[in-house]
Amino acid sequence: MTSHRSNAPNQLADGARSTIVRLAAALITTLAFVVFEAFAGIYANSLALLTDAAHNLTDVAALALSWYALRISARPASPSKTYGYHRAGILAALVNSSTLGIIALGVIYQAYRRIIAPVAVEENVLIGVAAIAFLVNVGTAWLVRPGGRRDLNLRSAFVHLAGDALSTVGAVVAGVAIKVTGREILDPIVSILIAGLILWNAWVILRETVEILLEGAPRGLDVQALAKDILQTKGVLGIHDLHVWSIAADRRAISAHILIEDALLSRTGELLHCLNELLFHDYGIVHSTLQLECEACQPSDLYCDLTDPEANHQQAFHAGSPDSTRPASG
Known about the structure:
alpha+beta, Alpha-lytic protease prodomain-like, 2 domains, 60% helix, disordered C terminus
C-alpha cells in the first residue's frame, strides 16, 4: 500500500514560480557582469579577474541550467515518468558540479604558469572590479538562496555564487597586497586559493548528487534506527526487503515488506496510518510503499539482494531481537 503527502507538490509549484523569477534575474545580472569583468581583466592583465570572470561564466550556465531544471521538475508524472521529473534538478546539480571541477583545474594550471613567469598587473583595476564583483555576487546569491536547503539544484547554484563572493574578496586582498608590495606573483597565488575553494564546493555537491543517483540512503537518515522504530509499532512482527532512497534532495521514499499479525484487511488501515505518520514526522519520508504480510518470507533479510536473488547475506530484523542475525535460507 502506498502513501504520499499530496500537499508537497502544490507547495513546490507555488514556490517554484517566484524561484524561477529570482533565477532569471540572477542570470541576467551575472551575464552582464561577466562581459564587464572579462574586458577589465584583459585590460588589467589580471589572471585573478579573468579567473573570476570564467567562474562567473560557469555561474551563468549553472543558473540557466537550474532555471530550466526547475521548470522541468514542475511537470506532473506521466506514464513514461511515473515519479515525475524531480530528478531533473539532480542532473543539473551533477553537471554544475562537474563543470566547476573542470574550471578549477584549468585555473590551477594557468596560475602555475604565471607563478613560473609572473606578469605585471594593474592593481587599481583589479581592486575596483573585484569590489564591484563582490556586490554583484552577494546580490545574486541572495536571490537564489531561498529553497537551497531543500533543493540540491538550487543549492548548487547558490554554492556557485557564494563561492564567487568569497573569491572576489580574495581578489581585492590580492590587489591591495600587490599595490603595497609590488609582488605580482600574489595574483596567481590568490587564483589557486580561489580554485581550491571552487574544487572543494564542487566535490561536496558532486558527491551528494552521485549518492542520490545511485539511490543510496538519504544523508542523515539512520536506516537501522528506522527499522527498529517500525518493529516497535504495535502489530508489527518483522520487516524485510527494506529500501530507503531519495527521489530528489527534498523527497525521500521507502518501500518495505511488513510482517504483521493475522488480521482482516479492513483492520490494517490504522496500522498503516501509524507507520506512515512515523515515517513522515520522524524521518521526513513523503512517499511510502508498504507491503503487509501475515507469513514470513524465506529468506527474510532486511535488505534484499537484487544482484543474486538466491544470495542472502545481510542482517534480518525480527520483533523482540532487532540485532539478531540468522543464516540465509536456501
